[in-house]
Amino acid sequence: MGQQGIIRTGIGGWTFDAWEGTFYPDKLAKKKQLEYAASKLDVIEVNGTYYSSQKPETFAKWAADVPDGFVFSLKASRYSTNRKVLAEAGESVERFLSQGITELGDHLGPILWQFAPTKKFEPEDFEAFLKLLPAEQDGLPLRHVVEVRHDSFKVPEFVQLIAKYGVAPVCADHFDYPMIADVTADFVYARLQKGSDEIATCYAENDMTEWAKRLETWAVGGVPEDLPLIDAEHRPKKKTRDVFAFFIHEGKVNAPQGAMAMHDLLQSRR
What we know:
The protein is an alpha/beta fold and about 270 residues long. The chain has a single domain, classed as TIM Barrel (Alpha-Beta Barrel), CATH 3.20.20. The protein contains 9 helices and 10 strands. The termini are close together.
């Protein structure tokens, strides 16, 4: 494939009862689950930070439990995004970013700002929100990704707006939410949410192969030809990009197996 960015595959969180004895070894202590998960996966999206703040010591402990190269994507506080006027989120954004996340250091991945399915695209207000997202925190560079889940965002103006600020959209493979596969940042963030508990690898073999090709295309700086674009006129600069792909939501029971299978598939294709 030549030069390419780093492709990381992972899951949402690391605590789930159904993973005990299937992904995690029998009788593995819960306090050892993160360490084990990080030894098998490349990235974890943390959902707990969406609901409540954490202490700096907690982030430092997470960082100490994972190997070099492993990263956490943090879902930002719901108080920042679940509001009528996004321009008024400044205090909540600052509070989230200053709670101690920089204790993760090199293990800090993208910050995910998730919006309610009912939140519609209001260009001026959304741009006001994007202006609240800093490029760094305590000297540590930040990468921002937005998950918008209302069809009103499926307009070129939205793609152009986030590209202006170097923010990535979630490319959601979802039954109900819009897919936005346009590339607008120096990384790509995919959430693969059509898995099945009945499939050992979460996604079927053919789907895994198709997604592997797309992840590789993004990593070398391209745009997959088989995914719809909201703004077909927008062509990102050709450069290698890091790619994050999460097996999450549907098929959660086998999500870890899906992430590991995708990692192995990508390795076999190199």
